[in-house]
Amino acid sequence: MRRCKWMALVAMMALISVACAKGASKWTRRTHWQDEDHHYVVGSAQGAATEAEGLSASYADAIARSRSLLFGVPVRDVATVATGSERCIEIADGLFVPIEEIQLRALPQESFVERVSPKDGGGFNVYRSVVVRKIDVAREIERLQELMHVRKGRICRDHGPE
């Protein structure tokens, strides 16, 4: 019985030491959380060639995730005749806007860089968190709704009243 307890303790300590060796914070395993006034979103880049490339790509991923998460529905590709494809997001029932129209104020918070060993392919795995104020999300939705009104409901080329 004592041997089983000792082996369980050794196994648990080994797991803890592996987690500590990697040094990743708990936030790197989350994609989104919030407090009373803010949303926090984590982006990642796996196998980046350089640390700088990974930081840039993980920030871009965090911004893309923020747009999808905070405006309600996943981004979808909308086929258009003139431009080929337009990336739109539905932020309210029937309100589709090009993702580039969304003015998102997301400030970088933390980053974590993990060097991948050459035997595992090399490169860098990078995680980056951003913070977005909830009031800014509400204001942006209001701005986009006003924009829809001004443009008579046609924000994305293939959506909205004719």
Summarize the structure.
This protein is α+β, with helices and mostly antiparallel strands. Helices cover about 35% and strands about 30% of the residues.
- DSSP strand tally: 7
**Which runs of at least 5 residues are low in confidence (pLDDT < 50)?**
4-21, 76-84
Given helix and strand content, the structural type is alpha+beta
The order of strands across the largest sheet is: 1-2-7-6
Gyration radius (Cα, Å) is 21 Å
Q: How far do the termini sit from each other? A: 76 Å
Order of helices and strands: HEEHEEEEEH
Helix content: 25-40%
Global geometry: elongated
Strand content: 25-35%
**Biggest sheet architecture:** 4 strands, antiparallel
Number of DSSP helices?
3
How would you describe this structure to a colleague?
The protein has 162 residues and is of the alpha+beta class. Helices cover 36% and strands 31% of the residues. The chain contains three helices and seven strands, in the order αββαβββββα. The protein has helices spanning 2-22, 51-70, 134-150; strands at 32-34, 38-48, 76-80, 84-92, 95-98, 107-115, 124-133. The longest helix is centred in the first third of the chain and has 21 residues, at 2-22. The N and C termini lie far apart (76 Å). The relative contact order is 0.18. Mean pLDDT is 75; it is low at 4-21 and 76-84.
